[in-house]
Design a protein that fits this description.
The structure is a homohexamer of 137-residue chains. Chain A has 137 residues and is of the alpha+beta class. Helix content of chain A is 30%, strand content 29%. The two termini of chain A are 19 Å apart. Chains A and B meet through strand 1, strand 2 and strand 3 of A and strand 1, strand 2 and strand 3 of B.
């Protein structure tokens, strides 16, 4: 069993804020991430596919195809965007925490990668914080 | 002659936009960086001081003091902020390009570091782009 | 299922030496790591928690709380310390190999993180060597 | 249960080409990686062993021994070599994709590491692409 | 005075060999880098421009234009190529040492960047070796 | 004019302490770096040589020779050592600050590198702090 991983980056603004909570509750929960005028990150996303190696090609999946899918379905949708204001369809109105961005990336890729290959979405918010999502299993 | 350097990071939103230009001119000049809802970066700032080594201490400057000055005068002012909306005093209303952020950092530090020691401000916007400012010399 | 990870660093001295062995046996086993006057490393520790995402907050665990726990329970105990001489309580008198440091970190965090969330402690001794501990399971 | 990992690097030339396919098919499948005069990479290989910690030594496996095995059985065989022309025995005439290089490394190490300890071979072709092989299980 | 830097990568094969020397002399001079079947690297190139900041734009040079020039004049010429066999025009038949690759990059860019702006070409052969070229001054 | 740089690493323990000062003065000056039982770092040292490119070899200096000199004259002297206790000759009894370690490296290399080539010694104490020494000029 082989896993292959491709890494891409995007830069985006976001703000953590739940409109069901008061400003004080948002501040207590999200700290400086609740700042109303947004802040931003250079996000790094790693997508891992898992499957057997095709003996004819020596590949589990063509990394050039994975790169194309990641750029078209993820990077073009969120790079140099505001995740709260510009990416409603991509984020499905979820609060743009690292966890929710990873879920949104997974759901988007799932429509474009053959069933069962998608194994993990890892999202780095910066060099110190990252999340791993393995799908709703 | 010795140079000592300290590195810190901050995360901020920004937008490149000159109000003296039309929207079309801003778009032509700044591309996707002109997006009206902002985007953001994990910025890395390196501050370099230059001077002789004190034989009694073995140090050119106490790196603990440099760290304190950088956190108080730079990081606390811009981290998790919007450089267009929240940092008017710090940026002096300059367009927040990497070049102008470096100039603003230099001017701020110059008020707090002994004369002649400040040598270079390096600002990384991401892993691929950075600027070096050596003061108005 | 989501995993979230936070990274911190500390700098410490250590020496690998088992008092039950002769000097020759220690030298044969640990090589230059047995040097009697110690050597040291910039250690990097990554702590991973595993659990569901709270739909109200969009978070598995508040990374600010994880940062606080890691700094108070790990970094403050070992940073700029000698793991053989200054950290007897933390290390429980284990030989300070990377494996044993990871176990000590796990045991310390287990007292401060809600049951079942702690998933992995990764400890880098340098850029070339690291260990992963998943608890005594 | 503990996992320990050691990282090494090597630089090699390769070309992706299946002689059973036409030049057009190779070009369509492998793109610029099929260039007849080869290209090359700085590969990074991480080998992970998995097992219990020996209470007498505090180690799962002596990292000095793992380093020696990796240098003798991997790095000395492929560093500054052409994976298509100079490494027939190592690669067993497989097409030198990242997946197949990882399999070849696994098979080589399996002959030199105690049974059941070898857990994962991770191979980075560059900073953006890597594969993980867990053996034929 | 401001310096701005852009980083790009390419992967190429090369061999260090001077046809005026005997095989023994080449081996003595270049070691394993003289291997006849080539080896390869992931090269990183950083191009630095130096000049004043335009107050209207806040920029020394448009980094998007520098990126375009670097990709068209450097990366497209050498990526996934053999520097000895496929890049005769680019390398001007120089031996493809790191020093000579940096000189070739400088000469190429000089034809496309406004006079006096080009300040430094830094070329990393790997994470441990790099060269800096400041032009023929 | 060309500059070539080689990077190596070493791990060492140290303590910042001036015996001419009281314990309180050392604590005030060096903070936690004065801890009596030492702490340690993974140091990274970069040595830069500066000179013309030899047209016959395409090299300013043979990087293999620089690597050999750095390992023999620096790494073998300080790796897995205590800079206060085990390296009296190397450090010439200087307080082992980053500045003084860089000076000691410079003085050592100066005896083994052809006159005028040695340009800079850069020493990283960790990823956030580094010093550059250009000789006593």
């Amino acid at each position: 069993m082989m896993e292959i991983t491709r890494r891409e980056e995007f830069s985006a603004a976001h703000r953590l804020f739940n409109p069901d909570f008061s400003d004080e509750e948002n501040e207590a929960l999200y700290g400086k991430c609740a700042n109303p005028h947004y802040h931003g990150h250079n996000y790094t996303v790693e997508v891992t596919l898992r499957g057997p190696v095709d003996p004819a090609t020596g590949m589990t999946y063509n990394l050039a195809d994975l790169k194309t899918a990641m750029r078209r379905e993820i990077i073009d949708k969120v790079d140099h965007k505001n995740l709260n204001e510009d990416a409603a369809g991509f984020m499905k109105n979820r609060i743009p925490t690292a966890e929710n961005i990873a879920i949104s990336i997974w759901e988007r890729l799932e429509e474009h990668i053959e069933a069962g290959l998608l194994h993990r979405v890892r999202l780095f918010e910066n060099e110190r914080n990252f999340v791993d999502y393995y799908g709703g299993r």
